Amino acid sequence: MDFAFTREQTMFKKEVLRFARKEIVPRCREHDLKETFDFESFRALGEFGLLGLHLPEAYGGGGADVITTVLAGEALGEAGVDGGLTLSYGAHAFLCADTIYVHGTAAQREKYLPKLISGEWIGAMALSEPDAGSDVASLSTTAERKGETYVLNGTKMWITNGPIADVVVVYAKTAPELRHAGISAFIVEQGTPGFSAGPPLVKLGVRSSQTSELVFRNCEIPADNLLGAEGQGFLMALQTVEWDRCALLAPIVGGAEYALQKSARYAKGRVQFGRPIAEFQAIKHKLADLRMFVETARTLVYRIAWCKDQGRPLNHLEAAVAKLFVGDWSLKPLHDAMVLHGGYGFIHEFDVERIFRDSRLAPIGGGTSEIQKKIISKLMSSQAGTIR
Amino acid sequence: MNYEFDAEAKRFFDALSQMVHDFSLEREPERALGPALEANLRDLLERLARTPYLALGLDGGAAGAALRAMRAGEVFATHTPSLFLAVETGTRRVAKLLEAFGTEGQRSAWLPRLLEGKRVGAVALSEGAMNMENDEFETEGRREKGRIVVHGIKHFVVNGPVADLFAVAGRLDGRAAVFLLERDTPGLVAGERVETLGCDGMTCSMLELNGCVVEPDGVIGPMERQRLLDTLLRWEDLALVAASLGLMHAALETARTFANLHMTGGKPLVAYQEVAFKLAEMLAGYQAAQLLAYRAAWTVDVSPRQAGVLVSCAKVFCGETAEQVASSALQVLSGDGYVSGNPAERAYRAARYIQIAGRSSELSRMKIAGDVLGRRR
Ligand SMILES: Cc1cc2nc3c(=O)[nH]c(=O)nc-3n(C[C@H](O)[C@H](O)[C@H](O)COP(=O)(O)OP(=O)(O)OC[C@H]3O[C@@H](n4cnc5c(N)ncnc54)[C@H](O)[C@@H]3O)c2cc1C
Question: Would residue B1 count as lying in a domain?
């Protein structure tokens, strides 16, 4: 066993921290407050090379390993980048671009990846529907083959980057009677007749990311926009889980580290009863609990990244444990970081309330905590052997 | 980065697990009473001496020793947490103390016998307050006519009732020292075994030192008090962390097996989300604790100066999670769990010890916070 990052990985993380603090963080509060997307920052992410960090250099990507990619996500959070921007980045780079890279034809890769990697285009992934969230196999959007086209009908819900996306990977049923085996994935471009996005939804957290409903009404797309083969969509969606459980969790862990650093600074500077509140034991305990969360979560998240780097198939149990832990175990320490700041903790410009709000998506998005428990308990009871 | 143990290490863990498992089946050490408590410890020590276990970490800091010891300890404690703690906090800790701070003469006098499993050790640290961070040692050695005379009272001495060699921490010349005292030293009185909430197969007692005479070569030190405390507590904390992993493993496995086999309403218990989701939370807690513990131990190996805070994180997190996991296991096992003598109720009781012993959860949190606040930002 070895938990060390390479020198290059550590250096790169530092670079990302520096870049994000200088180029992105100064605008985060404003965009969170106004619930607006920060196009400037998004493009800066592209210029810096983060949007396609894990994708091949041939398409303009960075060709980085998974651990480096996850470190970059953690660094964004740790620098103080809001969860809205990191979620938009995650949906774009991992749920959309990566799916096109892994399952797309040469022509699809050529057409979409360079623009997605540079940030010229924004990507999204549309799986959830108003009546199909946890139970994704029950989705009802259909894609009917008509000659050289597919015709899409249905509504998607809670789609990150929905209102601003140029390209969406959409999951729809080509054979509804087959349930999950009848799901296929398609690339749909903005401006395609019959495709529209609803207005941004007002949210508790991750507010600078734009989330909306997507509506497909007799939306006709070229048959060439099918990703992979018909019926493979469910497996493709499952594959994105690998990234979801490391690259999308990492900014949350980084955000918790940012909250920890802010809390420590605040506790040292805030004087009550004649001494810095950092001297009160109850305050120290809150700092300790947040540190424990950060260290533990990190270790779980990098396990998923390391396995992916080894080219191993995703261990669903370990992935669900990482997701469940980050989602559920972050609640109390991040809440306490807010309380540690007293009245200021409730005020936007101190950031800790935002981190708390942003983190509340962790037990919901990409599979709720209950679904993680469902997966874990199922795997546990089916494993004949002992628990390692 | 690498999240796996190599094949050779895995073989070692498997063999150790099998050996301790067989021993536990044969002797049921967690149910032992009276003389069996001592006999179990001595017999197991002899068997362990035939494996690399006792010498683990005693080879002048061989690469990866702390991490190996962590996993080995987990495996060991899964079968018998009490004997694991007896071996670790008593015997192996004395051996490590000798190796780290002892003189050549002290090492050659004691190390072989400890590592051959022929002698039982004990470390006497705690006094009136179990934690030693806030108060000076009251136990003191005074130089009298070229010898050192030790007076003091120690509490909660693991292996106290059975040990052959006591490593007693105290003051000497205004600094900290460890006095090495054999059981038959005049003036040394090991009390009766105290009844405790958990760790039923381990013995623990008071120790009185009424003018015990120590020859100068029976003293380790004197040295800086904090250095001695930090070293002893780190070793103890690592052992307690390993024990907590073992407790969780045993409790979780017991609950999982029960939930799969026990039927209610025509279905196995695990078919109910109330139970299945509890098992999932337990597993998540256990795996999180496990990885944190491994990382802390690995850091001890590769970067000991930076390891303190991670060891403290692991100590608090693993100890507290062990109690939660054991508590949930009890809930799953319901009536069966409440009947004494199953791994879940044993783990529940023992988990309280983990949080108190070594550096307590509260003091560990202070250490962690100290690190957080001290970081220059
Ligand atoms: C900000 C945001 C961004 C998102 N971005 C995207 C995106 O980009 N693309 C996309 O496709 N989706 C996205 N989602 C959707 C998200 O993945 C779903 O909301 C999530 O999977 C839960 O589905 P649901 O909302 O339908 O909840 P439901 O499935 O209706 O669940 C409701 C409650 O019931 C519980 N529950 C459900 N089934 C079970 C069960 N079997 N056992 C026990 N409890 C159960 C759930 O845990 C939950 O508490 C986003 C959501 C949000 C809030």
Answer: no
